[in-house]
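Protocol step 4 of 5: obtain the predicted structure for the target chain.
Materials: sequence only (see below). No template structures provided, no constraints applied. The aim of this step is simply to have a reference model before the mutagenesis design in step 5. Sequence pasted as it appears in the construct record:
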Amino acid sequence: MNKPSASYLITVAAVAMLAAGLYFIKTIEDPQGVLRALPYICVGLGSAMFGHGMGEIMNRYAMKHNSAAAKQLAIELKDERNQAIANQAKAKAYDMMVFVFGALITALALMGIDLTMLLLLVCAYMFIVGYGTYYRYKYYKEM
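Step 4 output (structure tokens):
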């Protein structure tokens, strides 16, 4: 499947998911179990997918009808300065995330949430920190 048709398919699926979620929110009177959260998950995922799909469609339309803008965007994407800025922003966001995620886990532990949820969060946190440590060590050896 090529990129343009994938964007249209994602957009159509998103509208269907969004409509189904809204329909279930309005029609199910006393949801039980999974049906309490599923419609809201459908609305959230549908909205995100719709935004992504429409963004791709609009981007392709703009690039098709304005070749100067397409050439300028291609230059900016390959520009080393822009890539360095993006990498530095990611590094700052990672540094912030480590502290915020750690504080959140501590706060949830002090609130006494279910141990299973707490262990899942701790495992995700440790995976992210381990991933960062692995690549830091790998890049340290290369340079």
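Step 4 remarks: Helices lie at 3-27, 38-65, 67-78, 80-111, 115-142. The radius of gyration is 22 Å.
Proceed to step 5.
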